[in-house]
Automatic annotation (TrEMBL):
Residues 98-143 are annotated as: Disordered. This is Uncharacterized protein. Residues 126-143 have a biased composition (Low complexity). Residues 115-125 have a biased composition (Polar residues). PANTHER family: UBIQUITIN-LIKE DOMAIN-CONTAINING PROTEIN (PTHR36649).
Amino acid sequence: MELESVISFVSTTKMSHQKSNTSQSIGNLTKIYKLNGNITKDRVRLLLMMYNEQKRGVTINKKKSIDMENLRLRLNKLILMRNDEVMRVYSNVKISRTISPLPPTPLPRRPSPLDTSQEPSSPNVSPKLSPRNPSPKPSSSVPPLRIANILIEPNLTLIDMVPSSFNPHEELDDDDDDDEDDIIYPEGVTELRPYKIVARYRRAIGETTDFRLKPILVSEDSTETLVLGLEHFAQQHNCSLTFTGENQQFDQSIYQAAAGVADLGSIHLLATDALLTANFQFEIDLDYDREIIQSEENIQKFVEGFCEAICKVLSCENGNVRVFSINKLADEVGKSQINFGLTTHEQKRTEQLAHDLTIYARSGFETDITLQHVKPGEYECLWKPMVSYLQIRPSDLDPQFNFDYRTSGLPEKLTCGSYPYYLPLGWYRYALKVLDKYGNDNAWIGQVDAEGEWPVAFYGTHSDAVSSILQHGLLPNAVKTDTMKQEAITQIGEEANQPGFYVTTHCEGGSYPQYTTPFTVTTLPDMSEQFSLVFQCRVQPGKFTIHTSPVSVGKAWRIVDPSAIRPYGILVKKEVSTK
């Protein structure tokens, strides 16, 4: 922008602002006018700073960079305050928001004849934006993301972003891969998928993939049947099942799941649809062919810059923003659309971030070098589960604690964690290795009704919310699946006024069959068997409310804190067998 244009812009907007202030203001209109004036002044000041630095033609030093960053921060906060005030005045909307104090306007810097743009002796780091909501500060446990895969098509580019520590190429199934020469199938087999899945598991544990030498054993107490059930469960939730040899600590599982990778410590978040992503589609004024897909390096640079800019605007962690795809807009020449999502381990915080981004997008992001390409507008988000991978470490199955509830003579009820424990009679339990996975205190997994024990509960492979979420992109509370929320608030107060999910005290009549989808194993053309999975977990005392609905037998426990659930077993039961 030429300097004359900047000065003309200053004069015009200043005169317009003065005229606006001569009229009689009503209510908080005066505050809106004042904010408009401050926004105009800061915007022009930023443009002048950028113009002067470009004119100098040298690299901006750290002091200048921090001044410009503070000015951008101040400008963004002023715009947010103005938008909130407009909503209060014209829409009669009551808005409650915590906005950190505005940084001071940078003072003009007197040039020194010896100024060589030296860096200060003490390191300076550009300040991050402070959260503008009452949610707790994001945990440093949120893993940073990286781009693992880029698939470029003529009109669409797919982006796969994963936690930096996760390698999706370590072990990943590809049904179209014909190079699996090590698999020897039984004669007469037409359905290859079960064998490919089990072959991947066998490779992970170092066993043969010759199914003539060692056939698949299909039964309730066969680990290979469990693996097939987990594959079906992953597919049911649009995930890819992967196997790893790396050690996994489950106390960080929730953060990994929010970044797109679930494991046995966060598998309940998949089953209960408790981890939702706010999906946005922003229109950008960049040509898909000429400015975006020139190379994978160009795509990566743009995607990383976009995510970093969104994180800076929202004061959130790098791992909370993922880009899923970029596509060409057919009816808009030179325009594209970027599809991305916001996810945190706390639904309430994700909702706040999505709300803030919606407000910001109304007036645009013209002060950011990347987001300035976003077309200002009223963008709505769709809510969907967006976990991409279910990662299993075979050694995290703990056979020494497997238990056969099909054994006759077992009691129907015991006591665990001071609550009744209704045994899942008729099922076979595969134990998960949970000792020392949540720190050194293992009292929670005890089974003698001692102090520190957590009571036992169950949950199925899906929730009632999933169909409405996937079909309409609505929050669970918007489709009335959180049926006991008001009753929970009555029991414990505002602590329960958050999105909740449910576990049951009974396996039969509680989680099964209402919240369970059976899976079928076909090993030969004339032989198939059907099984069901239910997850067995412990729930932290004092972290749930008790309800008689939505179950037909026993009680339902409503939980708002996902870390208050710890899976420790997977139950399998045979349904039907046809030959």
